[in-house]
Design brief:
binds flavin mononucleotide, about 15% strand, 14 helices, alpha/beta, 8-stranded parallel barrel
């Protein structure tokens, strides 16, 4: 159990990420109607650049690009047509200078050498600002896009993820930092003793190495993780340096925080401060608390109609079609089997809640709509109070702020961030050059280095 009452480190800072959802992510089916959002925002590099530059002006730690590779006609607008994260982030690297650049990449449908190379390249292009959100792909349908009959089960895909991350890190150490001598006098380009072959033969992969790339100033890209199952939490606790999650309130945030940091410390001997936990939050600002609540209610009503919620409801269940059932019959618990290789943790939680309460399908879908009410709605002062309360209570170390309506995000930057800065919890300016520096994470020592 973590000690919640341990003294605050004087340098502890709140961390902020911006998560752009283009034309609208899950539950935001009508965001694209906002006249300020270009109809093709999710494939428009200028739109992403505007968001990233605004977030950088506000000294955010990072911008985070989520991803998936399986769609249906019911997928949210942003998912239907969007840029590949690492390609997008490479362009943002050239148009920003300080903000961290984090992208989702799956370990289920990539090879370690190729992905380590692409992430390492992003890290060099951005001069040490890259981050990798390691996922195993919850959308089971992705398998069919890679010539596979079905998605691997949880143990297999998380086992692959464990080996994959270890391999990527080993490949990033292929060259010691002083391997390239480049001495014009002697004509020595490389100190060959400082280039290392991996020669890995494991359960899932065989990789010889070395990777043809040096390390950036931050050593390795920062590894983030977002799985919630037992296997996912253990992966996060062992290899995660940042954890993305969702928490509806402070007690559940604290329970997750204690659990994952406790696992990191207990099972893997890690310093819990070297793992930054950032739940995603929806922030709605208004001139008064009442006005902000009204904006939130109107947004929710418009963005997530019952029909849209019903159509999207099947995603954790392997995109099972729930429109085929009688809405007023008991919740069809047998549908859970369709989620076994998808977002099973989520599908199981929904099914158990519906069954325990004896809900109909209609009531269950309604519950997912009500769940959308956020704690972070009000004036800038009100929302700052809430964010600080969560952070002080160690329900998290920071927040991933969803970027929805541009006017709302501008208010977050112009009104909310200054309040957090005045209260001394959020940086007034960047103190570091790299993402690792922003997050207070150590630079990993090269495993082959023999000297300081
Ligand atoms: C905040 C957050 C962000 C996530 N981002 C992605 C993502 O971009 N792509 C993806 O395939 N899965 C994403 N996931 C899903 C998880 O990584 C994981 O695959 C899924 O939750 C199913 O595994 P689990 O049962 O271990 O949680 C995200 C989850 C959370 C909580």
């Amino acid at each position: 159990m973590m000690k919640r009452d341990r003294p605050e480190r004087p340098e502890r800072r709140m961390h902020l990420g911006a998560v752009p959802y283009g034309t609208g992510g899950p539950g935001s089916h009508t965001l694209w109607l906002d006249p300020e959002i270009p109809g093709d925002a999710s494939v428009d590099i200028d739109w992403f650049t505007d968001v990233a530059q605004l977030a950088e002006r506000a000294k955010f730690d990072l911008v985070f690009i989520v991803d998936s590779q399986f769609i249906t006609p019911y997928s949210p607008p942003h998912y239907l047509n969007r840029l590949e994260p690492l390609t997008l982030l490479s362009a943002l690297a050239a148009r920003t200078s300080r903000i961290g650049l984090v992208g989702t990449a799956t370990t289920s449908f990539n090879s370690p050498y190729n992905l380590a190379r692409r992430l390492g390249s992003l890290d060099l292009i951005s001069r040490g600002r890259a981050g990798w959100n390691v996922v195993t792909s919850g959308d089971a349908g992705t398998a069919a896009n890679y010539g596979q009959a079905e998605h691997a089960d949880y143990d297999t895909r998380y086992g692959r993820a464990e080996e994959f991350v270890d391999l990527a890190r080993a490949l990033w150490d292929s060259y010691e930092d002083d391997a390239f001598v480049r001495d014009r006098e002697s004509g020595v380009f490389l100190d060959r003793s400082k280039q290392h072959v991996l020669d890995h033969h494991g359960e899932h992969f065989a990789v010889r190495g070395p990777l043809n790339l040096v390390r950036s100033g931050q050593g390795h890209p920062v590894v983030f993780q977002a799985g919630d199952s037992e296997q996912g939490r253990n992966l996060g606790a062992r290899v995660g340096e940042g954890i993305f999650t969702h928490a509806p309130d402070i007690p559940s945030g604290q329970a997750f925080y204690d659990d994952v940091k406790g696992r990191a410390e207990r099972l893997f001997g890690r310093d819990p401060d070297h793992l930054v936990i950032m739940p995603g939050v929806k922030i709605v600002l208004g001139d008064t608390d009442e006005e902000a609540r009204e904006i939130e209610a109107a947004d929710n009503e418009r963005d997530h109609t019952f029909q849209a919620a019903l159509e999207e409801f099947g995603r954790p269940f392997g995109w099972h079609d729930f429109t085929q059932y009688d809405l007023d019959a008991p919740f069809p618990a047998e549908a859970l089997k369709h989620g076994e290789r998808s977002f099973y943790t989520q599908a199981k939680a929904v099914t158990e809640r519906a069954t325990a309460n004896g809900w109909t399908l209609r009531r269950t879908v309604e519950a997912t709509r009500q769940f959308r009410k956020s704690e972070f709605v009000g004036t800038a002062e009100t929302v700052a109070d809430k964010l600080v309360e969560w952070w002080h209570a160690r329900a998290c170390d920071g927040f991933n702020v969803g970027v929805d309506h541009p006017a709302n995000f501008r208010r977050i930057v112009d009104e909310l961030v200054p309040v957090l800065q005045d209260r001394g919890v959020f940086r007034a300016d960047y103190e570091a050059e790299t993402l690792r520096g922003h997050l207070g994470l150590p630079v990993p020592v090269n495993r082959y280095a023999t000297t300081g």
